[in-house]
Amino acid sequence: MKIHGFQKLTLLDYPGKVACTLFTGGCNFRCPFCQNAGLVLAPEQEPLIDNEEIISVLEKRQGILDGVCVTGGEPTLNDDLPDFLRTVKKLGYLVKLDTNGYRPKVLKYLAKEGLVDYVAMDIKNCPEKYAQTAGLKSLDVEKIRESAGFLMSGSLEYEFRTTVCRELHQKADLLAIGKWLKGCRRYFLQSYQKSANVIRPVFTSYTKEQMHQFEESLLHDIPETKVRGMD
């Protein structure tokens, strides 16, 4: 599997677990606020990490690490993902997958095969603004609905999360997301962060107070709504 980044220790990426994080390249979205421009736009220019090197580290850290987080880019685009995750699972690790949810068949297959334990699915915006927020002229939002519905109706641990930008998200948009995902297990609001690796660094963030106001407005539909990363 093509892996372009390897963070050997994280206490943040997998809730409640000590984990490592792997970064794959390529993405079917072009979210302008994405923090991983290199992985999305030109993964062929990013360094590759030998899979054997990663497996070797995982073998040595059995009993120290709880899980492996796989993020991107969009990991489900990688045809080698299932086989790689089988190797990881044989070593006894939990697996967390970060995904945009646009390949529901892959998500369902990974779940059916017992290759994922936790899914973090990005919710870009309310359905009416999805394509714009994902940086595309058009997309099939039913694929997003299918993935979200699958997670909400199943037993797999999951979270939904939205990166909130002042220019792309208004209160009405977030309330519409709340109606759409009503009753979901957990939903995180993440404030946009400026960095040198953003695809289009033209966005701004809401204040901490405003983000918590959004959180309060969503609690009726999603009681487990929380602002992440601002406290």
Per-chain topology:
Elements: E1 3-10, E2 19-24, H1 37-41, H2 51-60, E3 67-71, H3 81-90, E4 94-99, H4 104-112, E5 118-122, H5 130-133, H6 141-153, E6 157-164, H7 171-180, E7 187-191, H8 208-218, E8 225-228
Parallel strand pairs: 2-3, 3-4, 4-5, 5-6, 6-7, 7-8
Antiparallel strand pairs: 1-2
Helix pairs in contact: 4-6
Report on this model:
The longest helix is centred in the middle third of the chain and has 13 residues, at 141-153. Helices cover 31% and strands 20% of the residues. Strand 3 (67-71), helix 3 (81-90) and strand 4 form a beta-alpha-beta unit. It starts with a strand and ends with a strand. Strands 1-2-3-4-5-6-7-8 form an 8-stranded mixed beta sheet, with helices on one face. It has helices at 37-41, 51-60, 81-90, 104-112, 130-133, 141-153, 171-180, 208-218; strands spanning 3-10, 19-24, 67-71, 94-99, 118-122, 157-164, 187-191, 225-228. It has a single domain (3-165), classed as Aldolase class I (TIM Barrel). The protein is built from 8 helices and 8 strands. Helix 4 (104-112) runs parallel beside helix 6 (141-153). It is of the alpha/beta class and 231 residues long.
